[in-house]
Amino acid sequence: QGLSESPDLEFEYSDTDKWASELSELYSYTEGPEFALNRKCFEDEFSTHVSDKKWTELDAAQHRAHAMRLLDSLEVIVREKRLKVARAILYMTQGTFAECSSEAEVQYWTRYNIFLLLDVGTFSALVELLNMEMDNSAACSSAVRKPAISLADSTDLRVLLNIMYLMVETIQQEDPADKPEWKAMRETFRAELGSPLFNNEPISVTLFGMVTKFCSGHAPHFPMKKVLLLLWKSILFTLGGFEQLQSLKVRRRQELGLPPLPEDSIRVVRSMRAASPPASASDLIEQQQKRGVLMTSSRLQALIKQDNLDAFNEKDPYKADDARDDEDDNDDNDNSLETETFPLERDEVMPPPIPHPPSERVSFPKGLPWAPKVSFVGLTDRYDTDTVVGLPRPIHESIRTLKQHKYVSIAEIQMAKEEEYQKTPLSGVSTMSATELLYQGILPSLPQYMIALLKILLAAAPTSKAKTDSINILADVLPEEMPTTVLQSMKLGVDVNRHKEIIVKAISAILLLLLKHFKLNHVYQFEYMAQHLVFANCIPLILKFFNQNIMSYITAKNSISVLDFPHCVIHELPELTAESLEAGDNNQFCWRNLFSCINLLRILNKLTKWKHSRTMMLVVFKSAPILKRALKVKQAMMQLYVLKLLKVQTKYLGRQWRKSNMKTMSAIYQKVRHRLNDDWAYGNDLDARPWDFQAEECALRANIERFNSRRYDKSNNNPDFLPVDNCLQSVLGQRVDLPEDFQMNYDLWLEREVFSNPISWEELLQ
């Protein structure tokens, strides 16, 4: 069965996967034996205080009393004792699974115990312990000297990060059955996480610091997968997901007096259907062999020319697209149209086309999914569009259509206001939202944070080759003793691949969330982050990621479902065999990998949209054949973002490319939003738009630096604009440090400047 006949992927894009999947991805399979160790530590602590009952049999007061006892024990000086107590708390956040008989019961007790631990103040204590472990120089120096780092080197950090992740992930999950006090606790916790309450900075800034410390080589034992997962969920919880972003955008447009959005983009994308991908050369050969049809190239070309109109009028925009898609990585060949082939969909040699009535022959799309827009990015409305007296009726209709579809973005308003604020510095005041607090926290080191995330993404990408200078991201998955049997090696291989996939998932989600929230908060915050991603080679990195067999990546089976939490602690584990590991699960696709691919495509769109120089980078790096191969994934949202990336560069790919890829052009027309003043399908402005990457980026950087300097750099403020202290008492009460030579000659100064000068006090008082 060819790829063009494969079914649509039943994938629904969301902020996260199912709660159970997000919990299970926290643990590597190598950590499996630690579940029993956590249970033992809890039961040892529990039995000393409550001997005759189970945890699930106690009342609320007894639960609270024991949680308080554990919290007090966390403050002991002895490291081993502290780790045992932390493991006991971790067992509570894992739902005291030994007393449960089903996964649903584990999830209930997980939720109950976590809200209990939050209520007694556990999270603050965990942050203090995390800071202490981060600054543990002995552990850092020991890890640096070790030739091979394993799971054992990060035990303390892993336990703390596990508890913190489980708390954040569980508390952010809203449930209609939640008690009113739980709902209040959730909102309080959300505000605390996003404010500089812990360590005088938002928790996300602390975690970013761990990422850069790890990438610098000073702390190679940091369990980076857990750090990135906690960072992602902290940002998601404090700033909000894609649904909250959409509602926030609607509210922000109302506040600025802008017309409402023409549609809800989330709903539009969810209602779109995937198109069939282009058939590959191998598919065509296989079909021809099955039918036993032997055709000469001249006969085939004649039939193609004869049937072109039928092919281009089919409803499916991808069916029978360029068949050389897999082989032709260089789309600059001028003879590509001559060799274009279409799949043979009938069982016999294609007869001449049967004439049909025009109504049956031509099939137009029922309706475009997006309302068209017209926007003038970087331009101003210099012309009068209101005084239309005496103009012909068609001009009236044109102006009305223009106004009806004209789209003014929040970013345009923000840029215009920033120009005014540069002239009147005292007028621009920023509101303290969670996004604003996070930007202020990461601003001083934002370039380093972006480089660190991309370094880890490169190390986790399946297309990356192992290099001696690349960072080791497997510190929290490799066991102390390497496997000795084939089965153990296969299990570790699955674990390592799964580990890398989860890291890619977390980083792609972090980058996308930050870009979207910063763009809504202020466009220059978004541009600052985006520019540093571009400078750190994010565009070629993402293209390198997609330069693989993307269908294999999306359908990869790097999971062992019987070892996933909580299944592994509730059910008896069957005996694993090499055959069962190779077979994997029965899922049609891997949710996290498809989620990662869509996120990376969205990031690429964010970086290149309305940026001519960055669009030309897509052309220079020959992204078109790479992106076309990604269209084979039959998922509407992924196809949409691939088509957007192809749309922005079609005019630069040449007329021959457009002729050879009419199916792709048709799909772009059907699925991507139209802009009335965008000639994407033509090459009209090639001569007028030279590619000057440096000039464009420098102009943008100057605007960003002016914005950051005005809003955040207090040291460079103009003294004329600083408030003046007119209170005599506070002015005289200020401590002034005088130079040493002045203090030694103070008597001389008094004599010369005070006593020797006659002062007319009467005139002074007047």
UniProtKB/TrEMBL annotation:
Any GO CC annotation of this UniProt entry: cytoplasm
Ranges for domain Far11/STRP C-terminal: 392-746
Acidic residues biased stretches: 323-337
Stretches the record annotates as Disordered: 314-349
UniProt keyword annotations, A-Z: Cytoplasm, Phosphoprotein
Keyword field contains Phosphoprotein: yes
Cell membrane among keywords: no
Ranges for domain Far11/STRP N-terminal: 6-308
Subcellular location: Cytoplasm
Pfam family, one: N1221
PANTHER family: PROTEIN REQUIRED FOR HYPHAL ANASTOMOSIS HAM-2, STRIATIN-INTERACTING PROTEIN 1
The protein's role, per its UniProt record: Plays a role in the regulation of cell morphology and cytoskeletal organization. Required in the cortical actin filament dynamics and cell shape. Part of the striatin-interacting phosphatase and kinase (STRIPAK) complexes. STRIPAK complexes have critical roles in protein (de)phosphorylation and are regulators of multiple signaling pathways including Hippo, MAPK, nuclear receptor and cytoskeleton remodeling. Different types of STRIPAK complexes are involved in a variety of biological processes such as cell growth, differentiation, apoptosis, metabolism and immune regulation.
Protein family per UniProt: Belongs to the STRIP family.
Entry protein name: Striatin interacting protein 1
Organism the protein comes from: Oryzias latipes (Japanese rice fish)
